[in-house]
Structures are given as structure tokens and as C-alpha cells.
Amino acid sequence: MEKHLRLPSRHTYQNELLNNMKKRKQQSGFTLIETLIAVLILTLSIGGLLSLAAGGFYSVRYARNQIVANNLLQESLEYVRNSRDTAFIQGLAWDAWQDTLQVDSNGSQTGVDTDGCFNTNGCTINPYNTGAHVKACGTTCANILYFPDNAFYGYNDTYPFTSISASYQTSFVRKIRMAPSSTNPDQVVVIGTITWQNGSSTKTISQNMLITNWQP
What we know:
This protein has about 220 residues and is of the alpha+beta class. Helix content is about 40%, strand content about 25%. The chain contains two helices and seven strands; from the N terminus they run H-H-E-E-E-E-E-E-E. The chain has helices at about 10-90, 95-100; strands at about 125, 135, 145, 150-155, 170-180, 185-200, 200-210. Strands 4-3-5-6-7 form a five-stranded antiparallel β-sheet, with helices on one face. The protein has a two-stranded antiparallel sheet with strand order 1-2. A hairpin with a 6-residue loop joins strand 5 and strand 6 (about 185-200). The N and C termini lie far apart (about 140 Å).
């Protein structure tokens, strides 16, 4: 007996074709979803890395500025201490030494015990200046300048260098204020403050130092 090959009917063929098309659509849909998830994960990962990098740059800048601020503040305090020691060695009286810090905005002594560093507005100290090293602040103290070629911080003054490079203004503002003791006339409290901008925030460092008359 001969066996005849039975071909699938037209209806069966159409059903198989439709099923294959559905499977392909389903497989394409799953691939698209997986791609979207992969892109989302990658985006989140890159965003996290960028946030870490930005935070690292901020921390480095803050640490650098804090070191500079500490050094600039210590420089002024040491100048006041050194001027007291120099006055003592030269035999200058306690009151006469205080007069050297009672100055106007040009650095000229006024003899008024509420001027210069003894005023609430404070004074600026510029150890490298060839002229007056101490000047009274106005309403606010001047911003410190940085001279990159000479690698030092200063003000718009005259310096004993062969050539002075161009400078740019920093955000550092340094103020020294002196407050005589209300109980001991042979003591003065030196209050040093420096502020600067770190991004959008203002940072401040303060330090106090007690100066005593060595020859009461």
C-alpha cells in the first residue's frame, strides 16, 4: 500500500506563521527592555562616579585653601609677637609698642588708642612691604592678592623684589584686632581672623594669642 504525504492545510500554515510572528515580537520586546535596563544601570553608575569625582575636587580645594588660610593667619600673629619682642630688645616701653599698632589706613601712627589694630574694624599686616607693615582697615579689610611668579601673598603695596609679577585677587580676607585686658594693663589679646570662599560657602578661621608686657 502506498503512503501519501499529507501536506498541512492552509489554515494550519497561517496559524504557524502567526505564532512565529508573535514569538519574534515577544523576543524583540524582551531585548528592548533589557537594553533600557542596561542603559539605566550604566547611567546611574556614571552619575555616581561623577558625583564622587566632584566631591573629591571639592575636598582637595577645601584642604588647599585651609592650609593657605592657616599659614596666612599664623604669619600675622607671628608678626605681632615678633614686633613685641623687638620692642623689648630695643628697650621700647609697653605703651610705646602699642602706639606702633595704633595707625590710620596709610600706616601712620595716630596715638589714639582706638585706632588701627585696636579698632573693632581691625588692621592688616603686611610683613614684606617696604613701607608701613600695619594699616588700619576701613569698613572691611582688603582682600589678599597672590603674586604667582613671586610665589607669595600680599597687598597692593611696594615690595623689595627685583620685579613684581602681575597679581590676582584671592578671596582671603585677613584681619588682626587687639583687645587690651580689662583686668591687667600688661596684657593684650590678639585676635586673628581670616575668611575665604570655598565654592558657594564662606569659611572662617580664628585664633587668639595673649601678649604680655615683659618689663612691667
